[in-house]
Structure formats: C-alpha cells, structure tokens
Amino acid sequence: MGIVQIIAVIAILLLLVKPLGTYLYYTFSNEPNRSDRIFGGIERGIYKLGGLKKLEGMSWKKYTISFLSTNIVLVAFGYLILRLQGGLPLNPNSMGGMDQSLSFNTVISFITNTNLQHYSGETGLSYFSQMAVITMLMFTSAASGLSVAVAFVRGVTGKKTLGNFFQDFVKSHTRIFLPLALLVALTLVALKVPQTLQPTLEVSTLEGQSQQIAVGPVASLESIKHLGTNGGGFTGANSSHPFENPSPLTNVIEILSMWMLPASLPYMYGLFAKNKRQGWGIFSAMMILFVLLLSLNFYAESKGNPAIHAMGIDASQGSMEGKEVRFGIAQSSLFTAVTTAATTGSVNNMHDTQTPLGQITPLALMMLNNVFGGKGVGLINMLMYAILAVFLCGLMVGRTPEFLGRKIEAREMKLIAIAILIHPLIILAPTAASFLTDLGQGSISNPGYHGLTQVLYEYASSAANNGSGFEGLADNNTFWNMTTGLVMLLGRYISMIAMLAVAGSLLRKQPVPETAGTFRTDNGLFTGILIGTVLIIGALTFLPVIVLGPIAEHLTLR
C-alpha cells in the first residue's frame, strides 16, 4: 500500500507538469496572452507606483544588480522588525525582540529561500513578525529565485535579452505565488488548519493542569511555505505538527505544493528552447535521480533499525521513531525526499531519527542540489551540469562543444567551475572547522559518526538553501548563527551570479548552424550522460564524508 501511495502522488505530479509549465512559459515569455486581461492592469499599477516607466531588457550585470539591491532592502526591513518586534503591533503574546545573531541568521535564512530556523516560531515571533517578515520574505525570496531562473533560461535559449528583473519579480507574485497561495491557504483552512489572530490558547488538561496551545495565521504561512519552497514552520515541529499538517490529505497537498512548480520548470525551459524534448530530457534526469534516492529512503525506513531486529523485537512496521502515525513510512519517506529535492526544508518527521541509510537520501539530494531544486535553483544547476556534459563530450571527440546552437568556451566553463566548486567547499570546510572549535563541539549532542552527520546536515541544508533541520544540535548561539548565515549567503548568491554571467555570455554569441556532427541534447543518450555527469562530478565529491557519517554508523549497528 505504501508504494501505491507514492506512485499515486507521482502520477498526480506528472499530470500537473505540462499545464503548469505552459502557464509559466506564457507568463514569462512576455507575449500577449489571455492572462493579461486579468493581471495586466494590476501590474501596470505596480510599475507606475514603483516608477518603472519603461520595462526595457537588462544586461546580466544590470539584472544582477537589480536582484541584489532588492534583496538588500528586504534584508534591512526584515532585520529591523525582528529586532523591534517587542514594541510593534499584533503581538498578543508579548514576544520580545530577537537578539542580534539570531536576527541576522533568521533574515538571511529567509531572504535566501533557506528558512533554516534556530528558533521556534510559536515562542520566538509575534504575529506581526510572522506575517510582515517571515511570510513576506517567503514570497519575495521565491519570486527572486524564479526570476533569476527565467533570466538564465532566456540567455541559454538565445532570446534577445535576459528580460527585466522588476517585471519578472512582479509577475512572479501577481500571476503565480499570490493566486496559488490563496487557493492552497483556503483549502488548508477548510481542512482544519488554523488561520486566526487570537492569542495563544490556555486550556485545562484532563489532569487539571494548564496548557498553552499556540495558534495564529498558520494556513497563510503554510501555503507559501510550500509553494515558494521555503520550509520555515509556524511552529518548531514544522509540518509534523497537527495544526500545520493535520491529515494525510493535507500531507499530499503540501507535497504537491512544494513539488509542482520546480517539476514544471524543465517543461517551461523546453518551450523557451522551441524543443519540448529538451525539457523532458532534463525532467527525466531529475526524476530518475529522485526515484533512486527515494527508493533508498523508503527501503531503509521500511526495513527498520538493524539494532532493534538484533534484540528480537518485532519491527515489521518499519522504523517509526520520529514519524507521525497518521502519515506512516510511505508519506514520511516521500515528504523527506521531496522537501530536500525541492530544497523546501519543511519536515513531517524528524530526519535525525531516520535510519543511517535513510539519512543518505536527504543529504544526497541537498548535496546534488539539482534534482528539481527550489524556485529555479534545480533547473539552473541541472542546466549547468548539462553544459558541463556537452563540454566533456566535445573534448572526447575533439570538437568544439555547442549547447543549443552556441559554442561553449573557456569563459563559460570557468564560471561553471566556480559554481560547481563553491557548493562542496562551503559544506565541507565549515563542517571540518566546527570540530576544531570548542563552540562547534559543545553543541553536538551525539558523539561519533552520528555527530558528524548532524553537523554535515546543518551545513548541507544551509548551502543548498534547504533549511530543514537534522536536529540534535544546540544551534542557537553566535557560532552557528553566524557560520550558517555566511554559508547561506555564499550558497545562494555566488552560483546565481555566476550563472547569470554564463547566460549573458551565451546571449552575446552568434548561433552556429546545426550539422551532422552536432551533439544532440534532446535524446535518451544525453539524459544518460547527464545523469552520469551529475553522479561522477557531484556525488563522488561527497562520497568520503558520507562514508564517515551515515555509512559508518550503519555498519556499527550490525
């Protein structure tokens, strides 16, 4: 039955890919379409209010500066509110302001679409902060990432310009995130997810004790949390909390919410490239890698803990430690794989309590960071590997490599090398450094192999803009707040800037005609080569540390 549940959700996703990918294409192709009659007037009003008289195309440098400057303004706004929330309205529970290092970590976390939380939302934030900072940054960070991805696609597919960042940014809100978030939020409210501004409830238990029950504007945050692949929970328990995710039905809705947009982007790319097979090839590579890693997690969790089996205890139901009974193994494994593949970071079970082999799946998906990915990140990174694969194949046959009719030369490969190398560097270097400092070691609750996995997961989650917590770390201190904050910044912006530069470089090149010797990138052979490139270049980079962590822990359980 568990496998049937997983197949059913994947089948629903496949039905959504083409219509949603087509809608994304018409949204960002800037060609006249029927949605202009609905959203055009609103968007023109926003442009006028923002002083945008002409929506001219931008160079990659101007697009990058516009993207960064917008994010800087949002960071400053969010930081001030978090520091001053104690004196601001909509604070019925009298929350005080956040301290400096936690405010820095939180605002960086949400502007980079990471949403790593070193606090519990129900005890650390006022309703105003939840809405004006957390929910607001969930919209804007997702829109920023999607805009950059669309600009990169335009450059790679040879459009006249990368587009205008502010136009893409506004359209991402008006035509995609706001309508979808409203629809999902209303659905969640109908399925018993709270949406209120009432203060925390105080009730009496059956034993006569007083208990505090946190409520608030949960449904509105949950909708964009998943649609924007953000992941920050209203409560510390995230989507394992019954108020955030009360039933198997809401669980499936949340899985599809965080998965459908990233899964539709490859199809959008194929439409931009005027070759749908290109898009399906990228999608197939992502799905094959996803299914392989999902299968590992589902198998490991279904088999249970070897140490429990050795004690003669019946564990036929699998490893249910840290999982909600209402979801079971199947929906917990699928949620784990989707949330780390789509770099969402929302969790409906505690990854720290998964079996060692099961823990490899979320780690690997964040380390690869190209299996669907967040809003545009996965597509950008997979296309980066596609260009690398074409380059390597060109070298092997002694031909100048071409991708979509444009030559791949030294400048593009240097920029791609920077984007590929920065990811393992900002994961592995801080992981090693944390074991060399008293501040780092003092926060690790589990010694040995599991402690290594805890630290590795924290930095992998930060670098991949995922934000899910492995838990077990005492991470709300200056050391972890600052180091993970810096990793989130580097992981988000270096690769984005580098790939915008690649898009700008390709856009300036004259297309070359296709010949009999042109290496095709729209068939099954290239999909296989792409998967191989990802595994050889991406996966093998992290294999040693995976062996030292989860695999070594698994071997000790036998």
Automatic annotation (TrEMBL):
GO CC, any one term: plasma membrane
Location within or outside the cell: Cell membrane
Membrane topology according to the record: Multi-pass membrane protein
Keyword line: Cell membrane, Ion transport, Membrane, Potassium, Potassium transport, Transmembrane, Transmembrane helix, Transport
Broad class of where this protein is predominantly found: membrane
Xref: Pfam families: KdpA
Record flagged with keyword Transport: yes
GO molecular function: P-type potassium transmembrane transporter activity; potassium ion binding
Regions that span the bilayer: 6-28, 63-82, 127-153, 174-191, 252-272, 279-300, 376-395, 415-436, 486-507, 528-552
Residue runs in coiled coils: none
Self-association state and partner proteins as the record states: The system is composed of three essential subunits: KdpA, KdpB and KdpC.
NCBIfam families assigned: kdpA
Family: Belongs to the KdpA family.
Function field: Part of the high-affinity ATP-driven potassium transport (or Kdp) system, which catalyzes the hydrolysis of ATP coupled with the electrogenic transport of potassium into the cytoplasm. This subunit binds the extracellular potassium ions and delivers the ions to the membrane domain of KdpB through an intramembrane tunnel.
Name of the protein described by the UniProt record: Potassium-transporting ATPase potassium-binding subunit
